[in-house]
C-alpha cells in the first residue's frame, strides 16, 4: 500500500496547487483594472497599504501572486516603492487566512459537503458567463472547491504514511535540528511556489502526527522565508524597480525569520496557550496561531526598520543611466495583468515624448530648455523595446476599454516614430538653416505650444488654436519664399530646403498636439 499512499499524496498535492491556481487566476481576471484603482486609492499611508495587502491576499489566497502583481505595478509607475512594500508587508499577514481556513474548516469538516457543490456551481457559472467577470468568479469558486478536495486527499495520504515514516526523526532537538526544519520549510515553499500551499501541507501533516510542535513551527518560519523565491525569480531580468521590491520582500522575511527563531520557544508557548493546549488535535490551530504571530511580528519590525531598508535597496539597484535606452517601467512582470502593461507602455511613451519636446525646444534656442536636466534617452532603442511589449500585449485577451487603449498606444507609438524622424532631420540641419526656416512669430508660436508647464492644463481647444496659428504662419512663410524665388532673390534649392524645414516644424506641432489631446 505504500506506493498507493505516495501517489495519493502526490495527487492531493496536485489538486491543492491546481485549486490555488484556479482561485488566483479567477480572482485576478475578475478584478482586472479594478485591482489597480483599488491599490492606488488605498496605499496613501503605511497602515492603509498594509490593510490593502492583507485584504487582497486573503481573497486571492496567494501572497506570491500578489507580490508578482505588485512588481508589475511598481514597474508601471502605478505605485512607489514604499507603497508597494507596505502592501507586501500586509500581504504576508493575509497569508494567515489560508492557515486558518485549513485549520478550522479544511481539517474539521466533511469536505464533500463543501467542496463538490463549489466545484459544480463554479464551473457551471464559468461555462454560462465565460465572457464576463462572473465567469472568472465562477472559476475562482471552483478553484476553492478543488483546493478543499486536495486538502482532504492529502490528509488521507498522511494518515497512512505516518505509520511508515520515521516520525521520531522529524522531532527537532537543538539548534541544528531547528535550522534543518527551517531549511525544509524553505525548500518546500520554493518547490511548490506558494507559501499558502506549503502551510496547507504542513498543517495537514501536523494533524497526522508527522511533525512535532516545534518542528512544525520551525517549518512555518522556513516557509515564510521560502516564499521570497517567487519574487526573486520574477525579478530576474526585470527593471531596478522590480529588483528593489523583491529585495525588500527578502529582507523583511529574513529579518522576521531570524527574530522568530530567537523567540521560537516563547512564541510557540503563546500559540499553544491560545490554541487550547498540547493535544495533537490542536497542533494545526497552534501552527495557524504561530504563523499569525510571525507575520504580525514582521509588520512590527518593518514599522521600525522600513526607511533603512528602502535606502539600502535603492543603493543596491540603481536606475538605468540617463543616456540609456533601457525601459524603466517595462519588464515581464507588467504582463501579468494587462492593465499594468498598458500603463507601463504609456509611461515609457511619455518619456520618449518629453525627450523630443526638449530637443525641439533646444533647436528653437529656448533658454529654459538649455538649463533643464531632463534625461537624454536613446529614443530609437527605447521605441524598439516598447514595440516588443506592445506586440506581447496584443497577444493577451483584452476586452472593452483595455483593447481600445492598446489600439491608441499602437497609434501613439507610430506617431512617435514619425516625430523621431522629423526631430533627427531638424537636428541634422545647420543652425543657419534652422534660423532661416523660422521667423519671430513662428518661433514664438512653437515655443508656446511646447511649453511644458502649460501642457498639463491646456484645453483641447487651445491646442487646436495653436496648431492652426502655426499652420497659417508656415503658409505665409512659404508664400514669401516662393515670391523671392520668382524674383530671383532666393535660390530654388535653398528655398525648397527652407519650405521642407518649415513643414517639419508644422508637422511636429501636429503630432505633439495629437499625442497630448
UniProtKB/TrEMBL annotation:
Keywords: Cell membrane, Membrane, Transmembrane, Transmembrane helix. The lineage of its organism: Bacteria, Pseudomonadati, Pseudomonadota, Gammaproteobacteria, Alteromonadales. GO terms for biological process: sodium-dependent phosphate transport. It is a multi-pass membrane protein. It holds the Pfam family Na_Pi_cotrans. The chain crosses the membrane at residues 50-73, 85-103, 109-127, 134-151, 171-190, 197-215, 221-238, 250-271, 283-305. It is found in: Cell membrane. It comes from the Bacteria. One of its GO terms (molecular function) is sodium:phosphate symporter activity. GO terms for cellular component: plasma membrane. Its main location: membrane. This is Na/Pi cotransporter family protein. It comes from Pseudidiomarina marina.
Amino acid at each position: 500500500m505504500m506506493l498507493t499512499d505516495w501517489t495519493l499524496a502526490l495527487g492531493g498535492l496536485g489538486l491543492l496547487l491546481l485549486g490555488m491556481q484556479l482561485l488566483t487566476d479567477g480572482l485576478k481576471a475578475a478584478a482586472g483594472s479594478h485591482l489597480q484603482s483599488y491599490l492606488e486609492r488605498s496605499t496613501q499611508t503605511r497602515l492603509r497599504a498594509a490593510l490593502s495587502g492583507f485584504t487582497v491576499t486573503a481573497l486571492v489566497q496567494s501572497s506570491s501572486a500578489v507580490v508578482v502583481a505588485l512588481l508589475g505595478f511598481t514597474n508601471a509607475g502605478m505605485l512607489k516603492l514604499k507603497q508597494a512594500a507596505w502592501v507586501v508587508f500586509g500581504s504576508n499577514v493575509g497569508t494567515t487566512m489560508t492557515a486558518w481556513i485549513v485549520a478550522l474548516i479544511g481539517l474539521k469538516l466533511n469536505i464533500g459537503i463543501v467542496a463538490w457543490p463549489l466545484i459544480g456551481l463554479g464551473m457551471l457559472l464559468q461555462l454560462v458567463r465565460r465572457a464576463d467577470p462572473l465567469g472568472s468568479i465562477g472559476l475562482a469558486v471552483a478553484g476553492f472547491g478543488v483546493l478543499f478536495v486536495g486538502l482532504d486527499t492529502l490528509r488521507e495520504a498522511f494518515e497512512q504514511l505516518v505509520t511508515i515514516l520515521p516520525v521520531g526523526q522529524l522531532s527537532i532537538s537543538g539548534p541544528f535540528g531547528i535550522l534543518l526544519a527551517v531549511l525544509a520549510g524553505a525548500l518546500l515553499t520554493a518547490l511548490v511556489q506558494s507559501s499558502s500551499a506549503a502551510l496547507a501541507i504542513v498543517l495537514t501533516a501536523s494533524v497526522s502526527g508527522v511533525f512535532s510542535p516545534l518542528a512544525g513551527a520551525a517549518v512555518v518560519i522556513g516557509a515564510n522565508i521560502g516564499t521570497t523565491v517567487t519574487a526573486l525569480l520574477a525579478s530576474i531580468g526585470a527593471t531596478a524597480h522590480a529588483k528593489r521590491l523583491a529585495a525588500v520582500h527578502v529582507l523583511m522575511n529574513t529579518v522576521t525569520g531570524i527574530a522568530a527563531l530567537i523567540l521560537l520557544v516563547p512564541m510557540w508557548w503563546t500559540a499553544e496557550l491560545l490554541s487550547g493546549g498540547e493535544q495533537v488535535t490542536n497542533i494545526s490551530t497552534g501552527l495557524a496561531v504561530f504563523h499569525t504571530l510571525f507575520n504580525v511580528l514582521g509588520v512590527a519590525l518593518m514599522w521600525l526598520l522600513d526607511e533603512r531598508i528602502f535606502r539600502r535597496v535603492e543603493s543596491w539597484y540603481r536606475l538605468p543611466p540617463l543616456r540609456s535606452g533601457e525601459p524603466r517601467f517595462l519588464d515581464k512582470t507588467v504582463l501579468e495583468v494587462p492593465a499594468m502593461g498598458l500603463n507601463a507602455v504609456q509611461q515609457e511613451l511619455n518619456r520618449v515624448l518629453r525627450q523630443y519636446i526638449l530637443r525641439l525646444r533646444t533647436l528653437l534656442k529656448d533658454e529654459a530648455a538649455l538649463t533643464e536636466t531632463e534625461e537624454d534617452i536613446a529614443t530609437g532603442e527605447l521605441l524598439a523595446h516598447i514595440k516588443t511589449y506592445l506586440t506581447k500585449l496584443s497577444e493577451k485577451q483584452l476586452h472593452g476599454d483595455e483593447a481600445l487603449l492598446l489600439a491608441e498606444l499602437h497609434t501613439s507609438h507610430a506617431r512617435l516614430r514619425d516625430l523621431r524622424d522629423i526631430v533627427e532631420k531638424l537636428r541634422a540641419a545647420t543652425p543657419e538653416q534652422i534660423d532661416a526656416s523660422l521667423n519671430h512669430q513662428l518661433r514664438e508660436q512653437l515655443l508656446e505650444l511646447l511649453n511644458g508647464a502649460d501642457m498639463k492644463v491646456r484645453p483641447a481647444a487651445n491646442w487646436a488654436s495653436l496648431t492652426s496659428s502655426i499652420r497659417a504662419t508656415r503658409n505665409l512663410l512659404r508664400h514669401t519664399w516662393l515670391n523671392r524665388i520668382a524674383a530671383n532673390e532666393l535660390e530654388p534649392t535653398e528655398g525648397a530646403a527652407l519650405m521642407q524645414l518649415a513643414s517639419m516644424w508644422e508637422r511636429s506641432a501636429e503630432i505633439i498636439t495629437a499625442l497630448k489631446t
